[in-house]
Amino acid sequence: MSGDSDCTRTSPSAGSPSDNEFLPDRPKYVCSLSPDLITKAREQLQEKPEWRLRDVQALRDMVCKDYPSLGTCLDDAFLLRFLRARKFDYDRALQLLVNYHTCRRSWPEVFNNLKPSAIKPVLESGFVTVLPRLDPEGRHVVCIRPDRWTPSNYPITENIRAIYLTLEKLIQSEETQVNGIVILADYKGVSLSKASHFGPFVAKKVIGVLQDGFPIRIKAVNVINEPRIFKGIFAIIKPFLKEKIANRFFLHGCDLNSLHQNIPPVTLPEEYGGTSGKLDISAWNELLLASEEDFLHDFSQLVLPCDSSPHDMLSPYSMITLPKKPSATTVMTS
């Protein structure tokens, strides 16, 4: 569906949750959160179940009014991702949604033909996977191993595509929207020549996507086995990081005990001193590859409308800042 068709469709007022019943052609949202997670979302994300659909409709109305040619999906479940990522602050959720589309349109090398089958070699290499066990906070652990990449086989952008699709799959879960994720990055064996592929240009774009252009809450980045050159890599990355995100980086070196203070052994595979068996990438690869049709459907709704000018899109080096105006909700940090 296009943004125009959704926005010109008669919309109910945002007065009550029952308004969702008047949109028969849009999938009806059904909450899948447990009672504990509903409480957590209320306390940490300012999400009130009795106002949830009213908040979604308010964001939908803002999109239709301010960005009628955005070409975005306007389903309840999709918009909820952005509200949760910005603690139900309407203005910040709208900004995140616009940035999400801007990032996708400003980096065609990453986002064109983006589907699991297109990045199968990256998945098979083990560059990125998701551990089968959650951490004690109910968060998935995304494991990234740059040493599994051979630059002569494919460019670094293929790795970025694989990470992005992994996050897209994870964020489909309401539990992940509330709990966030943890990243485990193993830099064992990363040489200077390989690190040189991740220069300031790529670093700024990747951070722009993850920090300001994607509706996921990254709660910690645990770096293990980092070589001396990682100080140089982090020096490239740090200027682009917000202080809150920079403070969530934990450098453990070769100290597994230090890692276990952040991610307990029961969550980790044997390779990292854990007790959950050998690291197995096959289960995640099968799950992601089996989601091909889901991605084709979801991403087909995110095409740049033909009546949009390139000048309406953001530069790949910047994120949009919406005009300041009184927020419909109390401004909270994400």
UniProtKB/TrEMBL annotation:
<dbReference type="Pfam" id="PF03765">
    <property type="entry name" value="CRAL_TRIO_N"/>
</dbReference>
<dbReference type="InterPro" id="IPR036865">
    <property type="entry name" value="CRAL-TRIO_dom_sf"/>
</dbReference>
<dbReference type="GO" id="GO:0016020">
    <property type="term" value="C:membrane"/>
</dbReference>
<protein>
    <submittedName>
        <fullName>Alpha-tocopherol transfer protein-like isoform X2</fullName>
    </submittedName>
</protein>
<dbReference type="InterPro" id="IPR001251">
    <property type="entry name" value="CRAL-TRIO_dom"/>
</dbReference>
<dbReference type="Pfam" id="PF00650">
    <property type="entry name" value="CRAL_TRIO"/>
</dbReference>
<feature type="region of interest" description="Disordered">
    <location>
        <begin position="1"/>
        <end position="27"/>
    </location>
</feature>
<dbReference type="InterPro" id="IPR011074">
    <property type="entry name" value="CRAL/TRIO_N_dom"/>
</dbReference>
<dbReference type="InterPro" id="IPR036273">
    <property type="entry name" value="CRAL/TRIO_N_dom_sf"/>
</dbReference>
<feature type="compositionally biased region" description="Polar residues">
    <location>
        <begin position="8"/>
        <end position="19"/>
    </location>
</feature>
<feature type="domain" description="CRAL-TRIO">
    <location>
        <begin position="115"/>
        <end position="280"/>
    </location>
</feature>
<dbReference type="GO" id="GO:1902936">
    <property type="term" value="F:phosphatidylinositol bisphosphate binding"/>
</dbReference>
